[in-house]
Amino acid sequence: MGAKEISIGLLGLGTVGMGVVKLLRENAALIEKRLGAKLTLKRIADIDPDRPRPVAVPREILTTDARSVIGDPDISIIVELIGGFEPARTFILEALGKRKAVVTANKALLATYGSEIFRAAVDNRAEIGFEASVGGTIPVIKTLRESLAGNRIHSIFGIMNGTSNFILSKMTDEGLPFEEALKTAQKLGFAEADPTYDIEGIDTAHKLAIALSLSYGKRVRLEEIHREGISRITGQDVEFARELGYKIKLLAIAFERGDRVEARIHPTMIPFDHLLASVNGNFNAFHFIGDASGSVFLYGQGAGMDPTASAVVSDLMDISRDILNGVSGRIPPRTVPEDQIEDMRILPMEDIVTNYFFRFTAVDRPGVLSKISGILGRYDISIAAVIQKGRKLDGVVPVVMTTHMAKEKAVRKALKEIDRLDVVGGDTVVIRIEDERLR
Fold first, then answer.
1. Whole-angstrom Cα distance, residue 323 to residue 328?
2. Is residue 183 annotated as a catalytic residue, yes or no?
3. Cα 272–chain centre separation
4. Residue 226's closest CA among 245, 250, 242?
5. Can you tell me the distance from the alpha carbon of 113 to that of 401, in angstroms, rounded to the nearest whole number?
6. For residue 346, what is the DSSP state?
7. Which domains does the chain carry?
8. Mind listing the pLDDT tens digit for each residue in 286-339?
9. What three-state secondary structure class fits 199?
């Protein structure tokens, strides 16, 4: 009697798709032994099936017709690796409507249309796997849906974008200017020709939205997550951070605040001894704190052909085990039943309280510091440290201040007033600090 077989249809044969083909082929015997069944890639749909690829694929299983793959009655699982919103959204909904399981790495789609897709999966009693959508090979989804399912998640800290982390690491470790670090990332394939999604925190926002939804079992409106990128960070800021004992990282941060959640993405100064400070290059890391689990730290490759393919195949094996056992819907997509999902209440950014780094460009004359500190004092912003560098030929000097805990709303008002002073040139650079010692 032959081994049991589960047939798979793949939509999209780009970098990750080729990684999935490669992994299923090279580890076929291992996968079959662990699963007790063969995973067979029966059909692949791609917009250009004839282009040369580093991974050989039999021409007879390739097609340009995605719907013929979705409609194939022998295929049990559809893997969507097209990316973007359409036609990926339509194809996923059609597959779920036919009660086929779906595996996707499409974080942008899930962050934007997740409620519709998860509802369709539940209504059609179809499985959906999306481990590859957050953190590549790092088991973030499995950790939140299963390992920490009995915990209240108090906080999330994450380096969720390898491109930004690579750029900041180059700026910190080698002293490269931002533009040069970005060009290096592009040359090595870590950044796209248009790097906007990575350097402006959009990719990170998609991942944080999904992680929040799983952590708290709620619908997340992507536009409510405060987001800032790294394009304004300079070598000067990196050096001041080092002098103060900090590294700058693009962090996704969330805290449970009663019936609300604080959720924000921005460049952040963290102490050298912080868990995330040692995460360099294009690596990702996630730090969760649960009420029972305590600190949980996950680290690894967050993108790339092989790491992302590893996460896709993990989902294929999980879903296949359920198929083999006649089980469906064992774990809700967002940790609670979809009919109990409520909207997440996200704390407005102006209400958050944290520590701050300010870099002013000030005229080098007596009384400037007292003017600046006087305005900060009127808004109850307490100064923790001050650094003033030597005189410049053009008559201006950088003045750096760090603060004790302050409210964002007060900081914005104070800086608006300070930036109007005739002794301050340009907009003040603001970087938030996460340092328990200042609290």
1. 7
2. no
3. 22
4. 250
5. 42
6. B
7. 4-136+305-343 (3.40.50.720), 152-299 (3.30.360.10), 349-438 (3.30.70.260)
8. 999 999 999 999 999 888 899 999 999 999 999 999 999 998 888 999 889 998
9. helix
Separation between Cα atoms, residue 376 and residue 378, nearest integer Å: 5
The residue with tokens 């490269």 is 176
In one letter, which amino acid is 139? Answer: P
- Both tokens of 184, joined, read 């290096």
Active-site hit among 100, 170, 207, 218:
207
- Greatest mean pLDDT among 172-186, 324-338, 382-396 lies in 172-186
- Dihedral of the CA atoms 262, 267, 273, 275 (nearest 10)? 60
The residues, any chain, with a CB within 8 Å of residue 423's CB and separated by 6 or more, are 362, 363, 365, 368, 371
How would residue 1 be classed by pLDDT, with cut points 50, 70 and 90?
very low
Q: Are 361 and 425 in contact (CB under 8 A)?
A: yes
Token pair of 433 as six digits: 């600090």
d(CA 362, CA 306): 50
pLDDT > 80? residue 395: no
Query: How much is the pTM?
Result: 0.94
Do 141 and 331 contact (CB within 8 A), yes or no?
no
